[in-house]
Amino acid sequence: MSLIDGMISECGSETSRLAGELLELQGRWSETEAMLTAVKDSHSVKVSKLEVAIGELERDLGKTASSLLKEKKARKAKSSEVRRLRRQIEGDAGLASRGIREATDALRSEFQARLAKISAFLGSLECIRNEHFALATIEGGVAVVQSFQSETSPTLEARLSGCKGDLAVVDGGFDLILADLKSACFLPACSEGPEGKDPMLGESGGDAAPGLDEATGEERA
User: Fold this and answer.
1) Domain assignment present for 4
2) Where are the annotated segments for Disordered (predicted)?
């Protein structure tokens, strides 16, 4: 009996010890559950915050993508507008250049026509002058001969000198008028035309338009 009582006593002691350990484990388990609950709640809050942040990032990403798409469309439209303006500017430049060439050609033709008319007029004027001088010479010669028949030698020499002086004055005045007309026919020096040619040059690019001196020289010859 004493052996059984001893074993029962040992079993009771072991049971008491195990019960204490069980109570301790239950306490630890409760603490662990509380910690797990706190961690779960904390994780839930963090997950909620992360979900909100992800939603905001998605919205921002959508706005950024929309802005990028709009910017891309705007750049494409600007590129098209730049190409259109460039083509328009090139076309306008071509039209302006062609207009300048046409206007230059028209002015050159008009100037050459006027120059030819003035040269012809000066040639006619030179012929009239020569005829006038020839007639005046004949009339003067007749008058001198007549005066020679009626006047003495000193008087004749004086009249002859006076006639020569008057003739020189008239000739000089006519030459001055002719020089003024010639100078009026020439335009001031200008820059070269759009094709690199002098507006005073002819169509061949090397022969100048006939000058007044050449025209009047031909008439005099």
Assistant:
1) no
2) 196-221
Residue 93: left (phi > 0), alpha (psi -120 to 50), or beta?
alpha
- Is 8 among the domain residues? no
Which domain does 32 fall in, by range? Answer: 16-186+200-220
Stated pTM of the model: 0.32
Number of domains in the chain: 1
**Contact between residue 108 and residue 202 where contact means Cβ atoms under 8 Å apart:** no
How far is the C-alpha of 82 from the C-alpha of 103, rounded, in Å?
31
Listed residue (219, 200, 195, 193) closest to 119, CA to CA: 219
Which helix (H) or strand (E) segment holds residue 103: the answer is: helix 2-150
Give per-residue pLDDT as tens, 36-63. Answer: 988 888 888 888 889 999 988 888 888 8
For residue 199, give the nearest of 109, 72, 137 by alpha carbon: 109
Taking only the tens place, the pLDDT of each residue in 179-206 is 666 665 554 444 444 444 444 444 434 4
Whether the CB-CB separation of 213 and 220 falls below 8 Å is answered with no
Supply φ then ψ for residue 173, to 5 degrees: -65, -40
